[in-house]
Write a structure and sequence with these properties.
Layout (H helix, E strand, L loop, with lengths): L1 E5 L4 H12 L3 E6 L14 E4 L9 H4 L4 E4 L11 H21 L4 E5 L27 H19 L4 E6 L1 E3 L8 H10 L5 E2 L3 E6 H14 L5 E4 L2 E4 H12 L6 E2 L2 H18 L7 H7 L8 H7 L6 H14 L5
Parallel strand pairs: 1-2, 1-4, 2-3, 4-5, 5-6, 6-10, 7-9, 8-12
Antiparallel strand pairs: 9-11
Helix pairs in contact: 1-6, 3-4, 5-11, 7-11
């Protein structure tokens, strides 16, 4: 089977590529000119240079492919140029799906985010059907992904056989940037995390998340969404796990929310002047006000998604970050 993967140089996309290669697929990947391709080093893939913001460069990649995994996204909690993020996440999604429809691709798996879903925020897990609106979105990343998901849904009415997956918080190897969650782990390893906020995340190993994409292509119902997640944990529990894994002390001081929010506003204002990423991203602090807990039972029951314990996923992330020089 010939498949096309966008976002293959990134965290989730690189793991999808590896899972597809295990399945014996002919994997064709999209990579922007000049992009960081460390995650593709040594892999038997067909490389197509192109850009989601240049639709004409997508034709060659999708020609002859049966399945598209659209995992590419501009994932940052802060950006000096929000328009570029919307162009990539919303406009790019429209461009790749338009091309897939034109080439008669038989199945599309679109990687969205749990950030686009409804979330009670009080510790009650959200599901694929929890009510949500654009006004619930915090920050440009979530807003752009919410709009991109709506864009993807438009193609269902046009006959594109599309399944949406909503990963929670993947952790593990290949987090080269790293992602905001990966940075939390790196900061912990480098002893730059003296305190924590009272919040929570849903953790899944990145390889299990990638496997969920393939299961969605194989067993997912067209037009349905599937949360790819596993364990709901407080940030304090996550740090306790990291402490047990590494032998490093977990932070014991819980920070009050309001002063951190005020500091984030100040950092955001300075970032607009300097152009440098804020030390405390405002969107990240605003997101932390809610416990980002989700129920992934639909993916387990319908797709057969299996998941390793969160502690194992965190251990694999620690080992990878240390082995690749991110931390002591």
């Amino acid at each position: 089977m010939k498949v096309f993967v966008t976002g293959a140089t990134g965290f989730i996309g690189a793991s999808i590529v590896r899972e597809l290669l295990k399945e014996g697929c002919h994997v064709r990947v999209l990579a922007r000119p000049g992009s960081d391709r460390r995650n593709l080093h040594g892999l038997d893939v067909e490389l197509c240079e192109g850009d989601l913001c240049r639709p004409e460069t997508l034709e060659k990649g999708l020609k002859g492919c049966e399945t598209l995994y659209h995992a590419a996204a501009d994932y940052r909690l802060w950006t000096r140029t929000p328009a570029a993020m919307y162009a990539a996440n919303v406009g790019g999604t429209h461009a790749i799906l338009e091309t897939a429809l034109r080439h008669g691709v038989s199945r599309v798996v679109y990687t969205s985010s749990v950030g686009t879903l409804g979330n009670p925020g009080d510790g009650t897990p959200g599901t694929e059907t929890t009510p949500v609106s654009f006004n619930d979105m915090v920050g440009h990343y979530k807003k752009s992904k919410f709009l991109a998901e709506r864009e993807a849904e438009k193609f269902l009415a046009r006959g594109l056989p599309l399944v949406i997956v909503n990963p929670s918080t993947p952790v593990g190897p290949l987090d080269v940037k790293p992602t905001p969650t990966g940075k939390i782990i790196v900061d912990f390893l480098n002893r730059k995390m003296p305190a924590y906020l009272d919040t929570g995340l849903n953790i899944i190993d990145v390889e299990d998340c990638a496997r969920g994409h393939i299961l969605a292509a194989r067993h997912g119902r067209v037009g349905e969404k599937y949360i790819l997640g596993h364990e709901n944990l407080t940030l304090r529990q996550i740090f306790a796990m990291l402490g047990k894994i590494t032998g490093l002390p977990a932070p014991k001081v819980r920070l009050p929310y309001t002063p951190i929010l005020m500091a984030a506003y100040v950092n955001e204002a300075l970032a607009r002047v300097t152009g440098r990423e804020p030390l405390i991203p405002l969107a990240g602090v605003q997101m932390a006000k809610k416990f980002m807990y989700f129920d992934s039972s639909k993916a387990v029951n319908e797709l057969g998604l299996s998941r390793r314990p969160a502690a194992d996923a965190l251990r694999r992330a620690v080992e990878w970050f240390r082995a690749h020089g991110y931390a002591r």
